Amino acid sequence: MINQIIKENGQQYINEYKEILEKIKKYNKIAIFRHIKPDFDALGTQFGLATWIKDNFKDKDVKCLGDNHVTFTPSGLFPETDKLNESWYNDDFLAIIVDVGDFKRIADPHFQRAKETIKLDHHPATDSGYTISVVREDFAAASELVVNMLINFGESYEFSSLSAHYFYIALAGDSGRFLYDSTTTHTFEIASFLLSRKINILNIYEKMYEKDLSDLDVQKFILNNYKISKKGTAYYVLTQKDLDELHLASEQGKDHVNLFSSFKGVNIWCSITEDITEPCFRISLRSRYYDVGTLATKFKGGGHRLASGAQIEDLSKLDEFIEACDKLIEETNL
User: Which residues, in sequence order, are bridge partners of residue 270?
Assistant: First the structure.
C-alpha cells in the first residue's frame, strides 16, 4: 500500500504523472539530462531514474548524458555518463531533464533534438516550453519529487535496491543529510521507502563524505583568513592564486562554506571564489533563517531561500555585497 503522505503529495500532479508514464512507455529511446557541474542530487536522480526505467522496461534504450564531472561528488560514486554517436539522436527520443531550473544549465545541448521533453525539478522555475513540467519547490531535492512520482505510478512496478541506492544519495545530499529546513515529513517518508529497498546507508555515507588529507590544508587556510561582519556575515575569499596554491578547481571553492553553519552569531555565511573563465567571483550563500535567495537575485544569481548562488565582477564589489547581506539581517524581523 502506498504511504498516505506520499500519495497525498502526489495528488496535485497525478495527471502529469500519468502522462509521463505514458511517454516513458511510448518511446524506445530515452535520454536523461541534468545540470552542469553535477552534485549528489543531479547525478543520483539521473542514475536512479535511468535504473528504474531499465528495470521495468527491459527493451528501452536509456542513456544518461552530461559531463563526467567529479568535483562535487567523489570519483566512483556513480557510473560514467554515456558518450553517443551523433546518429543516436536521429531517431525520435524522449528527453527527461532533472534538477535543472534553467535551460542554460542543462549539461548537454542534445536535449534540444528530443521529440518531447519532460522537466522534473525543485528549483524556482525560470524557463518554460517543456512538453510536461513538474516543479516542486517545497521538496528538498529533485530526487524527492521523482521518487514520489515513481511510487505513485503504482506497486506493480519494480523498485530495485540499486535504484534506491542512487536516489538516497541524491536525497541525503540535497537535504544536507536531512539537516536543512527544506526537510519535511514527506522527505523522511521518501527516505524510509528507500531504506526499505535494503540499501546500505553506512556504505553510502562513507563514499559520499570521505575526505583527502589535503582538505585539512584548505580548511586551515579558510580558518586563518575568514572575516565576519558586525551583523554576522561570515565569508572567505579564494583568489586564483589561492586556488593554485591549494590545488583546487574554482568550483571547489564552495566545498567548505558550511564550516560556519553551527556557530552562534553567524547569520549568513559565504564562499567567494574567483572564476577566471568568466571572469568573476562566484558566491555561495547559506543561512539558517534569512532569505538569501532573494538577495542573490540582486547579484546575478538565485536559488533556494536558504542556499543560493550569486556573483560579483571583482573584489571592488565585495563590500557592497557584504553590506547587502548585513542589511538583510538588520531588516529581517526574527
Answer: 235, 285
Angle at which helices 161-174 and 185-195 pack, to 10 degrees? Answer: 150
Strand order in the sheet with 116-121: 61-64, 29-33, 94-98, 116-121, 132-135
142-152 helix and 185-195 helix, angle to the nearest 10 degrees: 70
Is a pLDDT exceeding 70 seen at residue 17? yes
Rounded to the nearest 10 degrees, what angle do helices 4-11 and 14-26 cross at? 90
What does the DSSP 8-state code read for residue 106? B
- What does DSSP say about strands 116-121 and 233-238: parallel, antiparallel, or unpaired? unpaired
Q: How far apart are CA 268 and CA 286, in angstroms?
A: 6
Phi-psi region of 305 (alpha: psi -120 to 50; beta: other; left: phi over 0): alpha
pLDDT digits 0-9 by tens, 210-238 = 888 888 999 999 999 999 999 999 999 99
Asked if the model's pLDDT at residue 50 lies above 80, the reply is yes
In tens, the pLDDT along 37-49 reads 889 999 999 999 9
C-alpha gyration radius of the chain: 20
Report the largest interatomic distance among the alpha carbons of the chain, rounded to a whole angstrom: 61
In Å, how far are 95, 130, 157 from 307, measured between CA atoms?
28, 26, 35
Res. 179 pLDDT band, cuts 50 70 90:
confident
Distance CA 247, CA 251 (A): 12
pTM of the model as a whole? 0.84
Backbone phi and psi for residue 80, each to the nearest 5 degrees, phi listed first: -75, 150
Over 55-74, what HEC string results?
HHCCCCEEEECCCCCCCCCC
